[in-house]
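[job 4417] fold queue: 2 targets
>>> target A
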Amino acid sequence: MSLLFEPRDVNFNELLHQKYGKTYTQKHKWKYYHLYTLLLKKSLYSNDIWHAISSTALRDLYGRSGARGNEKWVYRLIREDLKSWNVILYHTEQVDVTKRIARYKILDERVLSGYHLVDTVVPRRHAPPKPAPTKYAGIHGMIQQTAKKLRVDYTAALAFIEDAYAQSLSLKDKPIQWNVIQKGKWSAFRNRVVDASIYSRWLWHLYKLDRGAYGFKVDLGNTNRVFYLLTQIPSHLRKFMLLGGRHLVEIDITAAQPLLFTNMVLAYCRQQGITAIPDDVRRWKTLCEEPDPDKSLYPALHSLMVGAQLLLDSHLRFDPLTKKAYRVREYTKLFKAEFFAKIFFDEDKRTQMRRVFAEAFPTVSAAITHFKRGDHRNLALALQQMEADLVVGTVCARLYAQNIRALPVHDALYVHAEHVETVVDEIKKAFQDINLCARMKIKNM
């Protein structure tokens, strides 16, 4: 953990000096920041309210303090102090005869107050060794070197985050997780705004961006996807990323995976001895390649489901005044995520949505079942691999051969404005090479 934080309105250094004096503060201050940061990180990346932290690990890391014969475990002092300073709550519970577990949470008022970066660092002897970064070859190595040159416009990004929080900037709805909804957390999925939680998460990423605290990894042999800074930060912050001091343009391939799946369906047909392309496969391909967004794949599939009078999660809304959920019928991009989850990713092929889909697209549905056999995750992995092989292995390779630096984010590429036309042409060529027609959306960052 290279970055340490403290709450904006609680000064650990002053409180420690007041209670313990200079020597204790100098020796143990970093441990207070460390435990708070550890808990902060858990709260930013989990919907859980309470977070388990190993007392054994804290005991071994923080050690003891006090005169010989009257030593105390430092982690116990820390959590008692943080509790008395109204920073955290914690409790312990018996797991079995020999084991207890400790759970922690940051107080709501501390979440609302935010946090800031401190100059203190974890002493080198206590910091876990950082593994040497993997150096990739070929096109992955070229992308890795380009990614190292990314910088963030820190001042502009911070101003945006502060303003978004002050104005309660509206955010897109997210697919519902029913285990979270059952706890009453509708605000995590509907009527979303930049609240204290989102604000804290964005700040966390901004601090990491400023320190270059992101690695580079290629999921070789599995999905072949590239993971690095641009794939890990919130999408709202990508517009503040600079390459060579200049902003980038996003080129997004629309419905890339469904379009690529067309060729998997055709391969399935050949395997089954089907020589003439079935009508539903032709219709699927036409919808994937449709240039009019209102007539393209997902709106068409949505109309299909609405016509069958299905109750869709993407239709659910929540009224914060009455605290009641209600339904609408209009299409939103939430349907895309719901469709993929229930048709391509779900292991249950007997759902209502799957039944309606199979009636309209029998061959495509049969191919989905075929490619998910053995393990329902196989299809998702295969589609991600096809996408990565085309976007990175083909398009990026051709662009870097022309000295055009492009950075992939799955089905999108980020490039300088003067290269947009060339990149669009290369994407079209790559899809044409496999008898498909790609359509794209271009967004100035």
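>>> target B
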Amino acid sequence: MIELLVNWKLLLAERKLSILILIRLRLERTSNLMFPFVQISSWHYKVCYSILEGKEGKLKLDFSAWRQELTEQKVKYPLNYKTFGEAIPPQYAIQVLDELTNGNAIISTGVGQHQMWAAQYYKYKKPRQWLTSGGLGAMGFGLPAAIGAAVGRPGEIVVDIDGDGSFIMNVQELATIKVENLPVKIMLLNNQHLGMVVQWEDRFYKANRAHTYLGNPANEEEIFPNMLKFAEACGVPAARVSHRDDLRAAIQKMLDTPGPYLLDVIVPHQEHVLPMIPSGGAFKDVITEGDGRRSY
């Protein structure tokens, strides 16, 4: 198996029988914490070409066994979340969107908790439905990516599942979807915080906040900034929903409205993405429960 080694400590901790082949242009720069079975000093692309030549240009990859393993693990350890009164769990919002689109929408995201929940709770039916910057962490990616999808795949349902922190970084693109009359739907999971950073603050820093609250400290009851006003300024229809019982109808209206639309979904900032592995940890250190409503 050939693997892109992003977190080698994680790999070695979990796969004790793996063979680690290190490819580096200058081997003298190799960390003394890495103990590869084989070290190769070369350009990476040359090594890849050599592998393909050894396979006569045909590298057949069979993922069926791995996919079967994933299916079994999903049944054994299903995702779950809690509900609290009339508050809208962000995971639930994505589940409802999935149901109403039958898993056929093209989904784009920004970066943060919403990005991970979109990966977990939307049941994609086919390739090329999922537009995200992944580990590059490009906040603000969601709306421009959705614009590209709407232009490239006319007639498809395109939804930008975004967070308020990411969305505000490219909010000016509301003007683009208006003037181009692109049917981009924006489902904004608005928790008034930089949710992913808040999760780490909750878990590992005793919930001490460091510029992760995005609202107005003088009036924390107010939804600030008012995303509906941004949409109004650009002539984009918009609505806000804050109660679970109203969510399904609000999403359906978003989908049924011709052209662009912004739905501001107010969600609790205490929600955590699970499972998660702490920094420097391995799979054995995985966290599977808890949220920002308790102390750590």
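[job 4417] complete. Note on B: The mean pLDDT is 90.
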